[in-house]
Amino acid sequence: MALSAAAGSAGAGTVCRPDTVEIRGPRGETRFSVELADTPDSRAYGLMNRASLPKSSGMLFVYEYPQHVSFWMRNTLIPLDMIFLDARGVITRIHENARPHDETAIDGGSGVLAVLEINGGLARRLGLVQGGVLRHPAFGPGGAWPCGS
């Protein structure tokens, strides 16, 4: 495991799958199993009312086009890190340890195509930083780390 016992190591020659994301950062590569939230209803519900989230899992919110997004933690029972990504899969912002039940808006900025939510504190432990890249079919062949590369 390249980065942590909490997340899987991304391997060479991996085929992109909708239920998996790979992240490349200064400390190497890591992989998460993800649930997709790619409809208005699934994005609105997100990870609400979940008592736990496996450490190597997350939820990937995917939008139809890059846009300004804000999140909140209403009815969310666990702390989360939110990783905001542009249309190429580049990390533009990371909000760490969003507090359960907090209804304060968390601004993700403009030009966001996707947001990855993972367990709170994990982004820092894995060394994820702004400028890191995520590989997933949602970013297409023009992604910063395209599928098949």
TrEMBL record:
Taxonomically, the superkingdom here is Bacteria
Instruction: List the transmembrane segments.
Output: none
Note the Pfam families from the entry: DUF192
Name the record gives this protein: DUF192 domain-containing protein
User: What is the species listed in this Swiss-Prot or TrEMBL entry?
Assistant: Haematobacter genomosp. 1
